[in-house]
Amino acid sequence: MDYSTSPERATSGQPSPRSGPTFVGTRGGGQQPQNLADILERVLDKGIVIVGDIQVRLLDIELLTIKIRLLVASVDRAREMGINWWEGDPFVSSLEEKEDEDRAELQRRVDALEQRLTEAEGAGQIQATPAEQRDERG
Amino acid sequence: MSAAEGTVVHAYGLIADRPTLSLPEGVDGAPVRIARAGDVSVLVSELRAEAYGPEVWRDHAEDPRWLEHVARQHHAVLQAMVEQTDVLPLRLPGIHPDIATLEDVLRDQEAPLTRALDTVRGHVELGAKVFLVDERSTPEAEQRPTSGRDYLARRSAEATNREEARLRRQNLVLDAHESMAHASTHAVANPPQDSALSGRTEPMLLNAAYLVPRERLDDFVALAEQIHEGLAADGMTLEVSGPWPPYNFAATPDDMKVGQDG
User: Fold this and answer.
1) Which helix (H) or strand (E) holds A23?
2) What mean pLDDT comes out for the span A115-138?
3) Could you say which DSSP state residue A85 is in?
4) pLDDT for the residue A96
5) pLDDT band, residue B67 (cuts 50/70/90)
6) Residue A28 and residue A116: Cα distance in Å, rounded?
7) Measured at the alpha carbon of residue B102, what is the angle toward residues B99 and B107, in degrees to the nearest 5?
8) Region A109-134: what's the mean pLDDT?
9) Number of structural domains in chain A
10) For an engineered disulfide with B246, which of B125, B140, B171, B219 has Cβ 3.0 to 4.6 Å away?
11) Quick check: is A26 in a domain?
12) End-to-end CA distance of chain A
């Protein structure tokens, strides 16, 4: 197979990060070293396991620990990312779910503020938000 | 054919028999050689048990630097192979007491292993990730809000816009994955990588792998470029890596969880 005819795009020297997909790999020769996360994800989590040897099986059990430690990184981090991270589904980043939660919380606060504002208007006591007070008086 | 005293056999991957390969150096410079078991051949190195035996693995099971050391060298051998022939990667740690034992196991499992080799024949793996690099917060009117109500209305509109943008991104990412899956034989979407390990702070919206026929690699890359252009308008980038040994598609057909989109 011919690796030399393909459009190689290394990140270095790219005029802009959006000029094309970053191609990391061996195509074309000049390449970046492959990312450690990519390698560990593959060599520890993928690939065929040949069972049949007691030593290997014991090691496989131990390796569950590695996978958890390395791929999830830390308990805090896992919680931050959402525990579903490694429960099979997370195709779209769970960071976006975090975003959902943030927005829901924001919406609750906005609703509460709107409610108070309506009440205040009814009583003829419109007040600026703290941010506006700072802007206008500072 | 038994390993010398004080050694273990580290297995890298399986190949269909190919006598003319140029074999790279293995772990710690150990020679890589090919052991044949029926229709399947295995790439192995004999390593010192005191450096790579089961106890050492156990001791270093949570030692990222040691694992990186082994992982990179294991991968380097497979990478050198995939550039010459089809290879089926073995997961780490693939250590065995001696070659005779390993050959017995391979002979026992010859049928499923041959099928697994058939799956990746003529294919390589490409990785594709989508990152959100520019989440525009829709900078609205320059003027200050005229009232608290106006301020809140704007906040509310911003929240709506953000939700719309998020849904739009999600659909674009799903479409991108579908297109790339369509251009490949099998596809798999993996969980996004942790930024602590990847070193990337941008949210990873897609972490997928595709099993692509070697002769269609250029088509796939062209498609990826096209997808990348499309995603850029929504603040996303597509990064393609490879060709990799087909790690994500190295499984016996029975337990292979791929191909749902292929």
Assistant:
1) strand A22-24
2) 48
3) G
4) 44
5) confident
6) 64
7) 125
8) 54
9) 1
10) B125
11) yes
12) 69
For testing contact with chain A, the best of B63, B101, B239 (most A CBs within 10 A) = B239
Query: Is A14 near chain B, with CB under 8 Å?
Result: no
Q: Distance between CA atoms of A40 and A102, rounded to whole angstroms?
A: 32
Query: Which residue in the set A21, A53, A86 is minimally distant from B228, CB to CB?
Result: A21
Q: Compute the distance between CA of residue A100 and CA of residue A93 in angstroms, rounded to an integer.
A: 12
Q: What is the mean predicted confidence (pLDDT) over B72-96?
A: 92
Please state, in angstroms and rounded to a whole number, the distance separating the CA atoms of residues B146 and B250: 62
CA-nearest residue of chain B to A84?
A: B191
Q: Which H helix or E strand runs over B7?
A: strand B7-16
Cβ pairs A/B, distance under 8 A: 245
pTM passes above 0.90: no
Q: Which sign, positive or negative, has the C-alpha torsion A116, A118, A124, A127?
A: positive
* Stretch 145-204 of chain B: residues touching chain A, C-beta under 8 Å: 145, 147-149, 151-152, 155-156, 159, 162-163, 166, 170, 173-174, 177, 189-194, 196-199, 203-204
Domain extent for A21:
1-34
Domains of chain B: which residue ranges? Answer: 7-120, 123-255
State which residue of chain B sits closest to A127, comparing Cα positions.
B148
Residues 42-61 of A with CB under 8 A from B: 42-53, 55-56, 58-59
Q: What is the pLDDT of residue B219?
A: 94
Token code pair at residue B26: 């293995």
CATH numeric code, B123-255: 3.30.70
Q: Cβ distance A85 to A72 under 8 Å?
A: yes
